[in-house]
Amino acid sequence: MDLFNQNPMANLLPYEGTVILHGNIYTIAEANTLFKTLFEEIEWENDQAYIMGKHIITKRKVAWYANESYDYTYSNVTKRALVWTPTLLKIKEKVEQTTGLTFNSCLLNLYHDGSEGMAWHSDNEKALRVSTDIASVSFGAERKFSFKHKTSKEKIDVFLSHGSLLMMQGTTQEYWLHRLPPTKKVQKPRINLTFRTIQYTN
Ligand SMILES: O=C(O)CCC(=O)C(=O)O
Ligand SMILES: [Fe+2]
């Protein structure tokens, strides 16, 4: 037995965090249908932010859905969460069954092609967070997703395929950054859903 053969359910991080790739939780046919439905039904908007006084509008599109409609402020822009669509609820239930965890909100990102990505960051907005577990579901073009340790700078790459589930847990956000690097190799769109547990008051 090759002990170094990658077990897809093993922790991909060597220390100070837990990242588990569950692999594909949907068949290609199911994932195709979900991609199409999300592409058409989600209320996609360009993301906006004020970063160092500059108003930034991304090409990448985003949407927030949650158990309740509520306002939240992120990068100095106030946004309103939308209430789950039936498709999102079905995906949330599948993720909850697979992981044994529960989530109350979801950030969706639509990358039209490989020229769009997301820069190094960690998802640790303290005001919002009650749990650090994040479930990431991907549809469409396969893309590389990278982790970088905040002090050692060690890098770990993983490929996120059509219908796959990746879990980021424990101290991952505290000690590691992640990003979706842009790439010239990908011409097709990708949709990513990150299910989170956030504390909201309204
Ligand atoms: O598109 C992805 O795979 C990751 C998105 C992400 O990191 C985020 O929404 O915080
Ligand atoms: Fe993130």
Oligomerization state of this entry? single chain
SS field, number of helical segments: 3
CATH superfamily: Alpha-ketoglutarate-dependent dioxygenase AlkB-like
User: How many distinct beta strands?
Assistant: 14
Kindly describe this structure.
Keywords: Dioxygenase, DNA damage, DNA repair, Iron, Magnesium, Metal-binding, Oxidoreductase. It comes from Putridiphycobacter roseus. Its cofactor is Fe(2+). The chain is an alpha+beta fold. It has one domain (18-196): Sandwich (Jelly Rolls), CATH 2.60.120.590. Helix content is 16%, strand content 43%. The protein contains 3 helices and 14 strands. It has helices at residues 28-41, 86-99, 172-175; strands at residues 18-24, 45-51, 54-66, 71-74, 77-80, 82-83, 105-111, 118-121, 134-140, 143-149, 155-160, 164-169, 176-180, 190-196. Strands 1, 2, 3, 6, 7, 9, 12 and 14 form an 8-stranded mixed sheet that branches. A 4-stranded antiparallel sheet has the order 8-13-10-11. A two-stranded antiparallel sheet has the order 4-5. The radius of gyration is 16 Å and the shape is globular. The protein starts with 17 loop residues before the first strand and ends in a 6-residue tail after the last strand. The model has no long low-confidence stretch (mean pLDDT 91).
Secondary-structure topology with pairs:
Elements (H helix, E strand, L loop, with lengths): L17 E7 L3 H14 L3 E7 L2 E13 L4 E4 L2 E4 L1 E2 L2 H14 L5 E7 L6 E4 L12 E7 L2 E7 L5 E6 L3 E6 L2 H4 E5 L9 E7 L6
Parallel strand pairs: 3-6
Antiparallel strand pairs: 1-12, 2-3, 3-7, 4-5, 7-14, 8-13, 9-12, 9-14, 10-11, 10-13
The site of 2-oxoglutaric acid has 11 residues, from strand 7, strand 13 and strand 14.
